[in-house]
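Per reviewer request, we include the raw input and output of the structure prediction for the construct analysed in the revised manuscript.
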Amino acid sequence: MILSKPLTLSVLGLILGLSLFNRPSQSAANPPPLCYQFELGWGEKGSQPGQFQQPIGIAIAGNEIFISDSGNHRIQVFDHEGRFLRAFGQQGDNLGELNQPMSLGVKNQTLYVAEYVNDRVQTFSLAGDPQGSFGASGSGPGEFDAPSDVAVAADGTAYVVDFYNQRIQVFNPKGKFVQQYGTTGQAGDESGQFTYPTGIALLPSQNIVVADAYNNRVQVLDPDGRFIRSWNGSAFNIPQFFAGKFKTATAVAIDSHNNIFVADFYNHRIQRFTPQGEFTAAFGGMGSEAGQLERPTDMAIDQDGAVYVVDFGNNRIQKFLPQPTPSGPGCITAASQASNKP
């Protein structure tokens, strides 16, 4: 039996009704790109191959890009130029079936899919063959109430964002509950507390980066869940549009230089930060033209630094390439912000 969750004013309700070794740091000889320029886009609203109905999550594995096509209850796979390769999944709650798949994780040739309605994380081979699942509906250890994202460490440890339960849960490689961060069912804005968290990513140090959506901030925790730092939560959780601030941070992603990218949902942009939380660049802007975004929900970065953005409101994927100089009307940098100060 397929059941629908009640819609709330949470970000997911609005959407559906979201190594053990350090890499070398960037130096003056290899500075980070100042901004990103639109390269290509693909998709439109629909249910045919290459079309989307509320795309939510994205993951890259080698030469393939996996997209959770939530409203069509499937995963679609493309190459890096947006050419459709295959799709798998259909609506249901049996193994291999999906019901509103959310964000994705990939590790060791396995795709992890967080399912909003089925309250589980399902695993697939990269070819799309179902392998297993863990989780069930509820608020107890190992249970979920709308899991929204999953990040997987090199050893197979899975970190799952448990949206309505206001927590992060940790599972061993066999899918057994290990521990949680946050207090079950209790939203909060203190360090280490969450208010409808939606996204998660792992730094090479294994520190955990969380998109704490309705606190309008990013939090960084150590592997044991101890608070390290946060940034850009505002007084009284009032969302803001200034560069470096958020109006619902729905997803986080890490590039090969440990830069942290954040999907800034209601500001219709992607922002980039250093691992310490210093703003360095932003791109996007509300609209449906090339390079503009309508409520982005997720992004992934390939080894060449290209950023692939899930443009939820426009039912498409857009690819942006790094640029050594600012370009495009949606490009904002730390330097440009400094020059605009009175």
